[in-house]
Automatic annotation (TrEMBL):
Residues 5-408 form the Major facilitator superfamily (MFS) profile domain. It is found in: Cell membrane. CDD domains: MFS_FsR. It comes from Anaerovibrio slackiae. Pfam families: MFS_1. Keywords: Membrane, Transmembrane, Transmembrane helix, Transport. This is MFS transporter. PANTHER family: FOSMIDOMYCIN RESISTANCE PROTEIN. Residues 201-221 are annotated as: Disordered. The lineage of its organism: Bacteria, Bacillati, Bacillota, Negativicutes, Selenomonadales.
């Protein structure tokens, strides 16, 4: 595992997801300044998710066919610049279009980046994916804090800073990612030559694979098979998890502010605490996944989430919400790298497509359902939405017990 390269890709991931992470914190300012209702607010979450839920698997398919390293640069550029545009326009449909472009940029970035991580990970795929995920979680954690700070100091125009991040990091990715890919290819070629030499001298078996069914490059053998049935069950789990994750991002701050009577900074800080603590809990999940197995971590995490959400939503106090944030972060984020790597394992022949689906669904599907939840909140109130979130968490946990053990290549 080439850690210095992995850290750089994680940094690009942070700069890409810092814009997506800022979006939920910007929504209350749209409500406050432009008089949007819950339905309109949820429509903006839909804008960032609808096309991306379709496009991201498509770009993953392209990543399987031929590597397009500039996708990473284009993706981080689009996410930053698109969010910056929302600070300079007030028309709802212009904002809707800009956020749609932000979602498309994220869709372009993730499959190629996840395939690159798999390429340089070696045998420690769970840990490598968790490091990559930490970048995204860091972006989601810092995004709300940065957005609130910028808007408070500079007004909505302060969102221009996200555009600067997108331009700078997009340029860095454009020039440096091809160098990382070339370095990884050289190391893989050297490992393959060493494996052939060992085979000749009798130090390795004739297959040139390690005992995990992987070749010496760390990629799954081309003899691996696709288990579409298992991948379909994993997709159901990710879909329900995405509904929980996106609903929390969209409605938890508003729930704290409007139902529990917390101030706007206190309500918004819940997202930052969840995401920033997710940096550590994601690493924990990756370590446990390599040690105990991906499915075991998924089952423990999703099962733990259900009672935590019940206490958070129905404890009737902001103190209960804050008491549940850290364990909720562990339950949510520890499952992130396991389900991405598990998807790549189920579809051993189509790692890019698996990455596009798992990473895309983990965020975008929840956004697609956001307008319906927003409308539901307008009619029945925010508290009723919290019941639906708990139901989605229960279904997510149930789906984890349907997952079969992956077949080795």
């Amino acid at each position: 595992m080439q850690k210095k390269h992995l850290y750089f890709i994680a940094a690009i991931h942070l700069c890409n997801d810092i814009s997506s992470g800022a979006m939920p914190a910007v929504l209350p300012f749209f409500v406050l300044n432009y008089g949007m209702d819950y339905t309109s607010m949820a429509g903006l979450m839909f804008a960032g998710s609808f096309l991306s839920s379709v496009i991201q698997p498509l770009f993953g398919y392209f990543a399987d066919k031929t590597s397009k390293l500039w996708f990473m640069a284009l993706g981080v550029f689009l996410t930053g610049v698109s969010l910056a545009v929302t600070g300079f326009v007030q028309d709802y449909w212009c904002i809707f279009a800009a956020i749609t472009m932000m979602g498309i940029g994220s869709s372009i970035f993730h499959p190629e980046a996840a395939s690159m991580v798999n390429h340089i990970a070696g045998r420690q795929k769970g840990s490598a994916m968790s490091i990559f995920s930490v970048g995204g979680n860091g972006g989601f954690g810092l995004g709300p804090l940065l957005a609130v700070f910028l808007i408070t100091i500079f007004g909505m125009e302060g969102l221009a800073f996200f555009g600067i991040i997108g331009v700078v990091m997009g340029a860095a990715a454009f020039f440096l990612v091809p160098m990382i890919k070339a370095s990884a290819d050289r190391k893989i070629a050297m490992a393959a030559q060493a494996a052939m030499a060992d085979t000749v001298t009798g130090d390795a078996d004739s297959s040139g694979k390690d005992d995990d069914g992987k070749n010496q490059s760390g990629k799954y053998s081309s003899n691996g098979t696709n288990d579409w049935g298992a991948f379909g069950k994993l997709t159901a789990l990710i879909t329900f998890r995405a509904m929980v994750f996106t609903s929390l991002s969209s409605f938890l701050p508003l729930y704290c502010i409007q139902i529990l009577g917390a101030s706007q900074p206190v309500g918004t800080a819940t997202l930052s605490i969840l995401s920033l603590s997710g940096i550590l809990t994601t690493l924990i999940g990756g370590y446990f996944a390599d040690r105990w197995g991906y499915i075991a971590v998924l089952r423990w995490g999703t099962s733990l989430l259900v009672p935590l959400l019940v206490i958070c939503f129905f404890g009737g106090s902001i103190y209960w919400v804050y008491a549940m944030l850290l364990p909720m972060s562990l339950a949510l984020y520890s499952t992130y790298s396991p389900f991405v790597v598990l998807g790549q394992t189920y579809l051993a022949k189509n790692i890019g497509f698996a990455s596009g689906v798992t990473l895309g669904l983990s965020f975008s599907v929840g956004g697609v359902t956001a307008p319906f939840l927003g409308r539901y909140a307008d009619i029945f109130g925010l508290e009723s939405v919290m019941v639906l979130i708990v139901v989605a968490a229960v279904l997510c946990a149930a789906a984890s017990f349907m997952l079969p053990q992956p077949k080795k290549a």
